[in-house]
Amino acid sequence: LGLGAAFLTIMPLRANAAAEDAIAAFTGGADVADGGVTLTAPEIAENGNTVPIEVSAPGAASILIVAAGNPEPGVATFNFGPLAAAQAASTRIRLAGTQDVIAVAKMADGSFAKASATVKVTIGGCGG
Amino acid sequence: GNWARLAAQQSLSQDQLLEFETFGNISLIHVTDIHAQLKPIYFREPEINLGIGDARGQMPHVTGAAFRKAYGIEDGSPSAYALTYNDFAALAKTYGRVGGLDRVSTVINAIRADRPDALLLDGGDTWHGSYTCYQTAGQDMVNVMNALKPDAMTFHWEFTLGSDRVNEIVEGLPFAALGQNIFDAEWDEPAELFKPYKFFDRGGAKVAVIGQAFPYMPIANPGWMFPEYSFGIRDENMQAMVDEVRDAGADVVVVLSHNGFDVDKKMAGRVQGIDVILSGHTHDALPEPVLVGKTHIIASGSNGKFVSRVDLDVRDGQMMGLKHKLIPIFSDVIAPDPAITALIDEQRAPYETTLREVIGKTDSLLYRRGNFNGTWDDLICDALLSEREADIAMSPGVRWGPSILPGQEITREDIWNVTSMTYPNAYRTEMTGEFIHVILEDVGDNLFNPDPYYQQGGDMVRVGGLGYRIDVTKPQGQRISEMTLLKTGEPIDPSKTYVVAGWASVNEGTEGPPVWDVVENHIRNLGTVTVQENTSVDVVGA
Amino acid sequence: MASGVKPRVKVPKTAAAGEAITIKTLISHKMESGQRKDKEGNVIPRSIINRFTCEFNGEMVIDVTMEPAISTNPYFQFEATVPEAGEFVFTWYDDDGSVYDEKKTIEIA
Ligand SMILES: [Mn+2]
Ligand SMILES: [Mn+2]
Question: Where does the Sulphur oxidation protein SoxZ domain lie (chain C) (predicted)?
């Protein structure tokens, strides 16, 4: 049980409008299909300030990562060059609370696909 | 009554407890969650253990009469005493204490007499939970466990000794320290000190034992004490390890797990090729394996109260059969192994006078095990309220800690058995009503989220001075309502500030006296403890 | 230039021609988000690494644009194809205009 965690938002954060805007800016408003993207994130973050995520979208030109519940939802955009052996990457991100992380991939043919994962950020404590 | 005692004497013998017709070609011996209980103790099993979603009404979320019915256990029988909570104090007088690592040793020796190369596997939460374990930074447990000659171990509370101490002990362990999910946090690579698995050649077969440490260590416990390590469930890596050991010729795959039972069940459904999961962390004791697909999950209790024997028939790279017995360690029935008794006494000798000091007496049964407050929790919360002059008390929902019978004296050792930890400071702080609600919702979701992978395997935070209603079927944010400040009977005001005392904060730099001093002072002041029935939590949807 | 910024990379020393290898990179950087306030209540200005690139013999492997939601000490893991012997160049671009780089050669075995 965490004392002094009062600054952390604990309730699940809903996707804010800025997240939709960030995705729309990336896709130009095009349709986004489900499938073709794999986003791996922990069910529960060990530390909301450094949450490991891994994204993979075979054949993608670029992948946008959005933390839908953060006040500033943008996280990163991965652009893959000709020497990328896989259209995949891992990094660590900050999450202001429990929320969905969304990955949107721009495929080589200009189409878009996405995946999302819910990451719980908890004040923790207790245990068996 | 007299009849029960007579029946008990007739029906209980060491031979009977150990009776087991050796089966197949491999034997596994599983102990887990000993929580540093070297000596015999009393331990009451839970009354409330709710399963949510798919786990509703499924083992191990069945207690009392329903549990006895499910396994054909007679009321008042030794099994009823060992596995269920009803009539605990009376049955404890009939059947006596349980556990003691010298008795556990006798059982291990007996199994090894049948099968000399039986594998002894320790599921962790071993180097934590007593006065001597705290004072020796785990050395007492390491010394005694080493004498039992385990073959492998995995981990949870051990890490709260701090990574320097854990590393120091693990480097000197004469057996395998396993955890496929123990990673170096900086580079996200398997931690060098902990191997994912170990092979054992047994009965003409190749046995792979894969370790799975507690996945949520830095969340449930202070991550700042072991910042170099990262954990997690890591299903994909578990599958990769199962595939790797199979490719390397494993005939049978055993996972030594500290996931907690429901997480193990889910993992068994997602990772293909595990034959046996030896489950730990949630302290469940089940007399039969639970089968998920082809995976057998074994739950062996806690506090040294049980040993599981699992015999396997493995031929041509396949497990053809399994035979299991959950052996209750009735301390008055199983003869202690004198060598281990001497070793235990040696660990305790420097502290014996301090351990035995009588602090008070109890009129009530003191226990802690169940989703909501037990009487030990109520006593600790009362101590925090009065000693720290608080409106509300919070105590962690841990599952360890032996029980004390009505009429028994409470010694310093007894207090430490339910409070010992490396972050014991009893803080006193102000929290808004809204934040208290957030905490209850947060912990509630760690327990009652329908997806086991979002659970941490603890119990609900225990509260004093506060009443509330919980609907376990609702999502996070909607479970907790009707929060009431008990001393005034008024509803908790979200914007008002309350003085809250608690302990076991995972935050670095928490200040306050160690909780064992707080509890000791309180019991001293009371002289004799009487815990009133606690009706302040209204559980809905169970 | 921000102080104490130190890049580290893990690249295998050798690869077969055309092989895919895993690369890991870390750079010590506080990644000040621009959303925190100091004790006086003033916003601490944003100061982050905003771009990271990896090139091999002048050809792009990965080019990442970063926002303040990337954690302290940015970490990346990705895969590169190694067509021939040569040099990886890793470059981190700081908000304050600083550019940090690190180079690793790889042989064909
Ligand atoms: Mn435990
Ligand atoms: Mn545990």
Answer: 10-103
Of C56, C71, C79, which is closest to A93 when you measure between CB atoms? C71
Nearest CA to B418 out of B264, B262, B303 is that of: B303
pLDDT of residue A7 exceeding 60: no
What protein residues have CB closer than 5 angstroms to ion ligand 2? A 128; B 125, 156, 281
Triad C67, C72, C74: Cα angle to 5°: 70
Q: How would residue A16 be classed by pLDDT, with cut points 50, 70 and 90?
A: confident
Report the residue of chain C nearest A61, measured CA to CA. C62
DSSP codes, B312-339: EEEETTEEEEEEEEEEE-BTTTSPP-HH
Query: In the block, which residue shows the tokens 């409008």?
Result: A17
Which of B269-273, B449-453, C36-40, C56-60 has the weakest average pLDDT?
Answer: C36-40
Query: Does A8 score more than 80 pLDDT?
Result: no
| CB of B285 closer than 8 Å to CB of B329 | no
Is the per-residue pLDDT at B57 higher than 80?
Answer: yes
List the chains bordering chain B where 3 or more Cβ pairs fall under 8 Å.
A, C
CA C79 to chain centre: 14
Q: Which residues does chain A have within 8 Å of residue B505's beta carbon, measured at their own beta carbons?
A: 1-4, 125
Give the per-residue pLDDT at A122.
87
Q: How far is the CA of B126 from the centre of ligand 1 (A)?
A: 8
pLDDT, one tens digit per residue, over B235-281 is 999 999 999 999 999 999 999 999 999 999 999 999 999 999 999 99
Mean pLDDT of B153-172: 98
- Select the residue from A70, A91, A119 to test the C interface by mutation, using most C Cβ atoms within 10 A: A91
Instruction: Report the candidate in B234, B499, C78 with the shortest Cα–Cα distance to residue A89.
Output: C78
Contacts of residue B433, defined as CB under 8 A and 6 or more positions apart, other chains included, come to B483, B492, B493, B494, B495, B496, B498
- Domains in chain C: ranges and CATH: 6-108 (2.60.40.10)
Arithmetic mean of pLDDT over chain B:
96
Return the half-sphere exposure (C-beta side, CA atoms, 13 A cut-off) of residue B208.
27
SS3 B427: strand
* Exposure class string for B17-47: b at 16+ Cβ within 10 A, else e: bbebeebbbbbbbbbbbbbbbbbbbbbbbbb
Mean pLDDT across the stretch B366-391?
Answer: 96
pLDDT in tens, B81-91: 999 999 999 99
Distance CA B370, CA B351 (A): 31
Mean pLDDT in residue range B399-417: 98
Could you tell me if C80 lies within 8 Å of chain A, comparing CB atoms?
A: yes
Cβ of A86 within 8 Å of Cβ of C66? The answer is no
Q: DSSP character for B350?
A: G
CA B282 → CA A10, B276, B401, distances in Å? Answer: 25, 17, 13
pLDDT in tens, B516-537: 999 999 999 999 999 999 999 9
How far is B56 from B51, CA to CA, in rounded Å?
Answer: 4
Count of A–C CB contacts within 8 Å? 102
Helix (H) or strand (E) holding B285: none
Q: How far apart (Å, rounded) are the C-alpha atoms in residues B380 and B235?
A: 38
